Amino acid sequence: MLMAKGKLIVFEGLDGSGKGTQIRLLAEKLRVRGVKVYETAEPTQSSTGGIVRDALAGLTPRTAYELSAMFLADRIFHNVNPKNGIAKYIEEGVTVICDRYYYSSFAYQGIDADLDWVMGLNLDCREIMRPDMCIFLDVDTKECDERISSGRLSREIYENVQAQEKIRRRFFEVFDRLKDRENIRIIDASGDAEKISQEILKIYNEIGEK
After folding, report:
1. Positive or negative, the Cα torsion across 140, 144, 145, 149?
2. Please, which residues have CB within 8 angstroms of residue 157's CB and are 6 or more apart in sequence?
3. pTM over 0.90
4. Local structure of residue 62 (DSSP, 8 states)
5. H or E element, residue 206
6. Crossing angle of helices 19-32 and 193-208, rounded to 10°
7. Cα 104 to Cα 100: distance, rounded to the nearest angstrom
8. What pLDDT, in 10s, does the model give residues 41-74?
């Protein structure tokens, strides 16, 4: 009997939208059910991911085109590396929950680089898996900014209200483009964390047994 493949669930949202909290809560709920779960994030902990993080921190300035290409390289590694790549876990029947994926490249780098170019790099790459579901946590930009201010000692290059407003608009433009091709769910994530988690679990149930 063939082993059932795992699922790839991606969480997206503005900085400060609560992705880390909701990923943790979903993983806990799934593990209680006996589902094998692997939590991961982009950029990865690889050497390429380190270069990306330096750029996001403002330590090494990069253009949007450079960042797009570096994220692409890191994402390919994230998928195919034989030790802890997404494809490996999926084949082993493990559900992978990822904090950010190519939607973030579209929304973040897509505000300064050509959006069609950024999307093509990722969507046309055979080594990058398509998620079974993308969950977008929608929170007002000002609320996100307040969360960042109260929880961080420093900010990354995109973590300001002006940039986040542009990025939020770009996310919704991207989701509109992909609405007939990908399973994208948008959730109001400004309320109680546990209630939001229960809503996410109901959405997961739609694909969890397939």
Report:
1. positive
2. 55, 56, 57, 58, 163
3. yes
4. -
5. helix 193-208
6. 50
7. 6
8. 999 999 999 999 999 999 999 999 999 999 999 9
Structural contact between residues 115 and 121, judged by C-beta atoms closer than 8 angstroms: no
Phi-psi region of 93 (alpha: psi -120 to 50; beta: other; left: phi over 0): left
Burial class (CB within 10 angstroms; exposed 0-12, middle 13-18, buried 19+) of 95: buried
**Those residues with Cβ within 8 angstroms of residue 206's Cβ, 6 or more apart along the chain or in another chain:** none
Distance between CA atoms of residues 110 and 68, nearest Å: 9
Mean pLDDT of the region 161-179 = 96
What single-letter DSSP state applies at residue 190?
S
Cβ burial of 12 (10 Å; 0-12, 13-18, 19+) is buried
CA distances from 73 to 6, 53, 60, 114, 178 (A): 23, 13, 17, 18, 22
**Residue located via tokens 């750029």:** 55
Q: Is 109 helix (H, G, I), strand (E, B) or coil?
A: helix
CA 151 to chain centre: 20
In angstroms, the CA 88 to CA 156 distance is 31
| Confidence (pLDDT) at 117 | 98
| Element spanning 11, H or E | strand 8-13
Question: d(Cα 127, Cα 1) in Å, to the nearest integer?
Answer: 26
